[in-house]
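Weekly modeling sync, notes
Attendees: S.R. (lead), two postdocs, one rotation student

Agenda item 3: backlog of single-chain predictions. S.R. asked that every request posted to the team notebook include the full sequence so nobody has to chase files. The rotation student volunteered to paste the first one in as an example of the format we agreed on. Action items at the bottom.

Example entry:
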Amino acid sequence: MNISIVAVPYQMDVARWNYALGPAAFLDAGLVARLEALGHRVQGPVWITLPRSEYTRDTVTNLGRIAARTSQAVSEALTQPDSFVIVLEGDCTHAVGAVGGLSRVIPAPGVVWFDAYGDLHTYATTGTGYVGGMPYAVMLGWDLADWREAARLTTPLRPEVAALIGASDLDPEEIQALERHRLPRLDADAMQSGAGAKVQALLETLVAQAAGWYLHIDVDVAGPETVPGGMTPTPHPPSRAALLEAVGTAAKTLPVRVMSLATYNPSGDAARLGAHFGLDMVEQALAR
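Predicted structure, as returned to the notebook:
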């Protein structure tokens, strides 16, 4: 394939700090060499930046402006023949731009979201006010439409093609939202055995409902032993082997056009275990 890399080096709208360092760490760990060893042609990375002159005092406005640039880069990359895009995201907020870019090429895409957390809060449900816990809800159209629309995700995601896999730390409000909107779901505790078969059973019923899919991997889904340095370590993650099996199965089951790695803090991981886990996840997704 022609694989384009788009890098978004921001933790929310903050650069050069914690998760903002993740995209460079994945590249430094040898992502391009891995992809080329698999026989793919690699372009980029394209680095997304928000000029100082365009910063505002409002984080959501800034995120919308970053998302607009990410969306443009992803959509341009997808116009190439036999194209596939890998987005290296400082954190999950930048998935909004990635999915917006996919939706400009393939309307009404589907999303498979591997994450320890749901990221399904809105300002009406959050107990912390943390915007980083809201991007999946934003893409579903539950809040902050200005951010979603800046990403050119004009029509919100449909809940029936918005799956959540690997969650191990959901707030009660997120569980209520998952049940109310009937999002497809496979939690961490169900993945300790037969993860691949369970993911296939979940996703094969969805494959015909969207022509193109976004595969989101928040590396903190694996927990602090596999990915040290995270700000919010999860209590009972799936095993590394189960996650690799699950991601490989998801990519074989669905027509994935864009995937991402997100939420890696290399400053807390001297051995770069998390970076290599991320690269292993990419290799599993592309071994099809």
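Discussion: group reviewed the output briefly. Strands lie at 2-8, 10-11, 14-15, 41-47, 83-89, 110-114, 162-165, 185-186, 213-218, 256-262.
Action items: rotation student to repeat for the remaining queue; S.R. to check formatting next week.
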